[in-house]
TrEMBL record:
The chain crosses the membrane at residues 56-74. It is found in: Mitochondrion inner membrane. This is Essential MCU regulator, mitochondrial. Keywords: Calcium, Calcium transport, Ion transport, Membrane, Mitochondrion, Mitochondrion inner membrane, Transit peptide, Transmembrane, Transmembrane helix, Transport. It comes from Macrostomum lignano. Its main location: mitochondrion. One of its GO terms (biological process) is calcium import into the mitochondrion. It is a single-pass membrane protein. The keyword Membrane applies. Component of the uniplex complex. Interacts (via the transmembrane region) with MCU (via the first transmembrane region); the interaction is direct. The keyword Transmembrane helix applies. Belongs to the SMDT1/EMRE family. One of its GO terms (cellular component) is uniplex complex. It holds the Pfam family DDDD.
Length: 95
């Protein structure tokens, strides 16, 4: 049973549950509202605020910048390969 604490730690670390907010007592996993039923619950109350991802802008930049760089590099190398092998050579007289 020595693996049980490790299993519980890993389950807590990698669970798909959102972190609990202060002031709320909740017993089950946090469910995100998908917006398909409108802004109001069945009893007429507004749905709770959507969860905000911490450092979401920084995470987006960390993904977007390398992706753009890799895409630009692949495009540049592909164009150089096409010109080198005379597959596609742009004409200069298309002014």
């Amino acid at each position: 049973h020595a693996m049980r604490p490790l299993f519980l730690l890993l389950r807590r670390t990698f669970s798909l549950q959102a972190p609990r907010q202060q002031g709320y007592s909740q017993t089950g996993p946090v469910r995100c509202y998908d917006g398909t039923a409108g802004a109001y619950t069945e009893c007429g109350a507004l749905h709770g605020r959507p969860m905000r991802m911490r450092l979401g802008g920084l995470r987006a930049i960390i993904v977007i910048v390398p992706s753009l760089f890799i895409g630009a590099t692949l495009s540049k190398e592909g164009a150089a390969f096409l010109e080198e092998n005379d597959i596609f050579v742009p004409d200069d007289d298309d002014d």
